[in-house]
């Protein structure tokens, strides 16, 4: 196991009716900006729960955060924060709303061009405090220090991380996910599953605790994921998926182990250039990474297949290859497509999709050996 330092300051408030706890979680007298997305929270009752819980606070609202939050939109919100003298941000939504809120919190105090936080690794010295009411189990952003933002003007999608943007609290009520469209539920299942894979499917470093947690999370997400679309109002299924998604990326299982994240980074261009959902990009790319990097990942692939999918017959190589097939079958069972051609993406598009790897100076994967050429080859496998 590799050396590590670990701290996660996020207070989790989990269970039925927990949105009512908001007034006790936000500092008394705060001027609150409530940030949310397209308005679905007004249809499913979440908005009413939140606003009732915020009675007594001075609240400003900003609806309209995009599914892949835009830098341009975030900067509009920063101006509102300054105009209204906001001192606490409340994200009510899924990963996109939370990511946007984190960027707003960081951009508010940033000296210089805020895009540098993403494009140049600009150091964040101070950020506004924020809290979360989670409405979608997927990204784990409610309990980590990471954010991904898209810039429409340049068709870029980039990420940043800073301990300054850990939420102060995250309210997780599984019941609020009952009304989600099936597509969003399926995306969340696949997204959280692959978050675990990115931290697990590398090379062994004898980190038994992290591996055991990761294997348990993948098994839970797989088993509950294939049930949830048929049983959308089953509280136990929703609760297990919500908590698993949070633990999939709350920075715990990645401590002391090598990590990959190449599927995520390569997928940014698919979202920025073709508008694909984040989880959809991962469902396409992960089987390609598994196949191209097969020898490096064979040992863990075989173990993953045994624990998660019950693949026990054959040689280690045969079991590892069956695991790749099982993953792709799982994604398709959840209703996601797994080939670029299913979105009309052609071989002639691949140069533009692989170019950001060089532009950003990325060397992806646990061995840092995935450059733009390898990215192009992996994309070819997924046509």
TrEMBL record:
Pfam families in the cross-refs: ADH_Fe_C, Fe-ADH
Enzyme Commission code: 1.1.-.-
Root EC class: oxidoreductase
Keyword Transferase: no
Domain Fe-containing alcohol dehydrogenase-like C-terminal: 186-356
GO MF terms, alphabetically ordered: oxidoreductase activity
Glycoprotein recorded as keyword: no
Entry keywords, A to Z: Oxidoreductase
Protein species of origin: Parabacteroides faecis
InterPro entries: ADH_Fe/GldA, ADH_Fe_C, ADH_Fe_CS, BDH-like
PROSITE patterns named in the record: ADH_IRON_2
Gene3D superfamilies: 3.40.50.1970, Dehydroquinate synthase-like - alpha domain
Ranges of residues in domain Alcohol dehydrogenase iron-type/glycerol dehydrogenase GldA: 9-174
SUPFAM superfamilies: Dehydroquinate synthase-like
Full protein name: NADP-dependent alcohol dehydrogenase
